[in-house]
Amino acid sequence: MKLISCKSTKLITYIACAIAMVVPGAKTRAELLSLNRSMTDHVAELRSRVVGRDTMGYVHPDSQQRSAFRALADGLHNARTPGDLSALTAPASAIGYDVVQLSDGGTVYYGLQESLVGGETPRGWGSFFLRQNAARNALVEVVHPLADINTWEISARAFVDSQAKGFLMSGAHRNANGNGTADVGQLMNSVFQEVHQSFSGGATDVSAWQVHGFNLDLHAHLPSDTDAILSSGTGGISEIILELDQNIDDLNGAWTSYSYNTLDPADVLNVATNGTINGAIFDGLGGRSNAQQLYTTSIGGQFVHVELEQSFRIDGGDAARELIANALARSITLSATAVPEPGSVMLTGMLATFSLVRRRRSVNC
């Protein structure tokens, strides 16, 4: 077996060496995949490649594979020129990935997507893109592109329209190898989590936005008009959650959002989103154990967990999906800078005034 020397401290050499040790003897194909197409159309195609339910098609990455992919994601995050991007193609190919430069009009995206083998994705690890010259330090993430119908479409639209930095989409059904086996929202040891941490960059002003789906028929204890449930994942209510809640309430049509929180029902923050309803009843749909939430909030960033009922995702058709995508994009755009911590004196004071003028709810559970 040929020995591999990894003495160089240069990033690309490190990535190549790390991956070569994980996949010894792997054949590299140093080709940059250049595309000129709509980003949303490309996401639709990638979604069609996602490993299906009960197929046993998801490969759980071991620690070496996760480390190698983290190095690759860091390389993409640091890439600033086509030359930087091309330098990643050999190590990416060694681990079964293509490096992509996608041009959508005047916007350029750099990305990593799994190479097809016999028309299939052999690992189900996901697809990851970064907008060059992004205006917003925000990540838009799709963890259940198959199980949560049409969340990929809503997320892709919101990502494109908001000028957000990163887009992450899981590569397998959450139950690919059995119940919860590929649910990257709950798995700490996934390639998705490595990319999430890499793209976050350890920045305290980063925000991560995840769109999920639920069926109200399976949650009879919730208000009958629930179209969306918003959460920061921590039990508090951030300014971002309040902004998005208001944007949804202001949409054309009878759309109603609530928030999961553990505050006293009479707290001004709960009243602002839920009226007289206790936010704790939305537990289970609030992202409390979400792996990306736990990391993002641990570094001081903002996490936004959005659960959308079928009324938004399916029943309302394309018009409803466009409305909620626009609301998300608007909120991402308005949250470009860090906001006060949930429950802070400053935020509570601001909302004491805000809650007096916003629409109140009196829906009974």
Helix/strand layout:
Layout: H1 11-22, E1 32-36, H2 39-48, H3 63-78, H4 82-86, H5 89-94, E2 97-104, E3 107-114, E4 127-131, E5 136-142, H6 151-162, E6 164-169, H7 191-200, E7 207-214, E8 228-231, H8 239-249, E9 257-259, H9 268-274, H10 291-298, E10 302-309, H11 310-315, H12 317-334, H13 345-357
Parallel strand pairs: 1-2, 5-6, 5-7, 7-10, 8-9
Antiparallel strand pairs: 2-3, 3-4, 4-6, 8-10
> Strand order of the main beta sheet, please?
1-2-3-4-6-5-7-10-8-9
Q: DSSP helix count?
A: 13
What is the number of E strands?
10
Mean pLDDT: 87
**Given the helix and strand composition, which structural class is it?**
alpha/beta
Uncertain residue segments: 1-28, 337-365
Q: What is the global morphology? A: globular
Please estimate the helix content. Answer: 25-40%
Strand content: 15-25%
Distance between the termini: 67 Å
Report the radius of gyration as a whole number of Å: 21 Å
The string of secondary-structure elements, in order, is HEHHHHEEEEHEHEEHEHHEHHH
Major beta sheet summary: 10 strands, mixed
